[in-house]
Amino acid sequence: MTERLTNEQMLTRAARAVGKVDRYGARGVTCVSFDEIESMAATLAALGVPALPPDAETEDPAFVLILDFADGLRGLQPLPKPPFNRR
Asked: 0.85 exceeded by the pTM?
């Protein structure tokens, strides 16, 4: 049985995946691990993004809810970069 992740561990894994894609572009997508993808999905679910079945039509109410959620995110400002590089 897989051990449950803390919120910090989940966000760290998700952020590492985003970092790979941000740094390497399309090549970075191929470098993302299963655990990182799982953490990204869990992070989206924790943020309230509903699961949309793969065969759902775009007119489905769930999809409209996702679009409304995305509109709300557009108003968010990105976090400032830290003054130093943590490595």
From this structure: no
